[in-house]
Specification:
CATH topology of the largest domain: Outer membrane efflux proteins (OEP)
Distance between the termini: 56 Å
Number of helices: 9
CATH architecture of the largest domain: Up-down Bundle
Strand content: 5-15%
Number of strands: 4
Number of domains: 2
Radius of gyration: 37 Å
CATH superfamily of the largest domain: Outer membrane efflux proteins (OEP)
Largest sheet: 4 strands, antiparallel
Order of helices and strands: HHHHEEHHHEEHH
Length: 471
């Protein structure tokens, strides 16, 4: 075995014996309760978009948004960027080999030479070289590589979190459009009825069958609905524009878009995320990203500790050298060089100590950030479970109220036609019925929104949890 090969074998053995100075990683305990206070009998988690959001039109819009949304493209590119940085850091763990070939020729005039004679030289070289490769005795390079890997994974989790957020935003924007269209349609129907009532009141006033007060009240009731319609149309336009931005294209110009469902028939799975233990939070992308940042901080401590110890770098090459090109690859032209270098820090003004303090402080920050992320996630899910249940109760009561208001309007109108009630009672009944129907649509929209947010809050865990239940 020649010397370069012996040195290579020694290098491999040294690498295998290298140690790491990273602190042993322990995941912090969950700083939250074991389960949410809101519980029910549901035990199934659903992550499939088509199952959770059965509206075919909405499914199509989600697919287009995931393809076209510019912010998602940026987030995806960030993942590719972090992956490339991880690849760069990982390359330091392996020797960098290069093939070098060249000719070195020189001419020294007699006036500049020590011998007083003209000197001319020529040399040809071909070799494979290792450029300053560090033997990772103390795990400095591997710790930096681990930190880069954790940074890449944290970016990947951030992209996944953004994807879930985009789905939730598209659903909420779509539900807002559906709600406002239904409220606008309800207002248009109410306006038509108020217009007929206004015309009738005007005729009765002209015939002397009703007073001026009834006529003015009918006119005011009609104009109030005109104002409401204009406001809803303004809100609807803004909601449609927001949906276009999220989807990444004009929804109105999309071809072959399936018909959508009414707000009452969206069929979003209300109980799909119920009955899950609190440790499902560990599968949320924001929590996973926070843990990866903690792992990176932990790895950086290992790199900072290793900086106190000697660093050994290897530089060398092996190949052929000759004064003549035709004899370059002959047996007598073999050449090699080996230049190990040891660097031992003696005095650095406290730089290494400060770097270690900095790494340890950043780990404390990362631990606190991780625990805060878990607490925020727990609170978010707990709030959404409560909102979902209470909005369901509110919606049921509001539906009953709307039916009662409709019956009341029919009775009051019949009494007015029979001359038993005055027109003011009719107007009150009309206003209450209209407001009740509008409130029903708003509460239903809020209830669907709470379920949509639950998909965002827990869907990161859903697939794994569902697989566990089927075993």
């Amino acid at each position: 075995m020649n010397k370069p090969l012996r040195y290579s074998a020694l290098m491999v053995a040294t690498l295998l014996a290298a140690c790491s100075m990273q602190p042993a990683y322990e995941r912090p305990a969950l700083p939250v309760a074991a389960a949410w206070s809101a519980t029910d009998s549901g035990k199934q988690a659903v992550a499939d978009i088509a199952h959770y959001f059965p509206d075919a039109r909405l499914q199509k819009l989600i697919d287009v948004a995931l393809e076209n949304n510019r912010d998602l493209r940026i987030a995806t590119a960030r993942v590719a960027e972090a992956q490339a940085q991880y690849g760069i850091a990982g390359a330091d763990r392996l020797p960098s080999l290069s093939l070098n070939a060249g000719r070195n020729a020189s001419l020294t005039p007699a006036s500049a030479s020590f011998t007083g004679n003209k000197l001319q030289s020529s040399r040809y070289d071909v070799n494979v070289g290792i450029v300053s490769y560090e033997l990772d005795f103390w795990g400095r390079v591997s710790s930096l590589n681990d930190a880069a890997k954790a940074g890449y994974l944290a970016t990947e989790e951030a992209q996944r979190a953004f994807r879930l957020s985009l789905i939730s935003d598209v659903v909420n924007a779509y539900l807002s459009v559906v709600e406002l269209r239904e409220r606008t349609a309800l207002t248009a129907a109410t306006l038509e009825g108020r217009g007929q009532a206004r015309d009738m009141a005007a005729k009765r006033y002209d015939l002397g069958a009703a007073g001026e007060l009834d006529n003015l009240q009918a006119q005011a009731a009609y104009q109030a609905v005109v104002v409401a319609r204009a406001d809803l149309e303004r809100q609807l336009s803004a909601a449609e524009n927001l949906l276009d931005v999220l989807v990444g294209t004009s929804v109105g110009q999309m071809k072959d878009l399936p018909a959508g469902r009414a707000l009452a028939h969206q069929g979003i799975q209300a109980d799909a995320m119920a009955g899950l233990p609190a440790d499902v939070l560990l599968q949320r992308p924001d929590v996973r990203a926070a843990e990866q940042r903690l792992l990176a901080a932990n790895a950086n401590i290992g790199a900072a500790r290793a900086a106190f110890f000697p660093r050994i770098a290897l530089t060398g090459n092996a190949g052929f050298a000759s004064r003549n090109l035709n004899g370059l690859f002959g047996a007598a032209s073999r050449a090699w060089s080996f230049q190990p270098q040891l660097t031992l820090p003696l005095f650095d003004g406290g730089r290494n100590s400060s770097n270690l303090d900095l790494a340890q402080a950043r780990k404390v920050i990362a631990v606190a950030d991780y625990e805060k992320t878990v607490q925020q996630a727990f609170r978010e899910v707990s709030d959404l479970l409560t909102a979902r249940d209470k909005l369901a109760e509110q919606l049921a009561a509001q539906n009953d109220n709307s039916e009662n208001q409709k019956q009341r309007l029919k009775l009051v109108d019949a009494r007015y036609q029979a001359g038993v009630s005055n027109y003011l009672e009719v107007l009150d009944a009309q206003r209450d019925a209209y407001a009740s129907e509008q409130a029903t649509l708003q509460i239903r929209r809020a209830w669907l929104g709470a379920n949509t947010q639950l998909y965002k809050a827990l869907a990161g865990e859903a697939a794994e949890h569902q697989d566990a239940q089927t075993k």
